[in-house]
């Protein structure tokens, strides 16, 4: 059973958590690992290093859209391939993300959370909903 009084706020919390996660992961790649370091990571896992900047830019743009609630469900959908790539990159490390080099638990969980966001919607306080109501 869904509590229709509180569901919009639950969806909002999910949207804020996902948007924040994407922004912090982009910041991690920019300021901790650096883009050249991320390129090396991609190459070490058989992925094209040229994907580094597009991934970082998608994480920033998608994270902002999700956080603000502007085409956020579409952004979650567009970002799913990044989570699939992260899952593949960490698959050999085992389940738990605290394993050496990180396991696949976290990207799979985020993929499921993204699917829930896509199905559930943006919730309360989404900017796109306010813009649509004003029009």
UniProtKB/TrEMBL annotation:
Keywords: Cell membrane, Membrane, Transmembrane, Transmembrane helix. It holds the Pfam family DoxX. It is a multi-pass membrane protein. The chain crosses the membrane at residues 12-31, 51-70, 77-96, 108-127. It comes from the Bacteria. It is found in: Cell membrane. GO terms for cellular component: plasma membrane. InterPro entries: DoxX (IPR032808), DoxX-like_oxidoreductase (IPR051907). Belongs to the DoxX family. This is DoxX family protein.
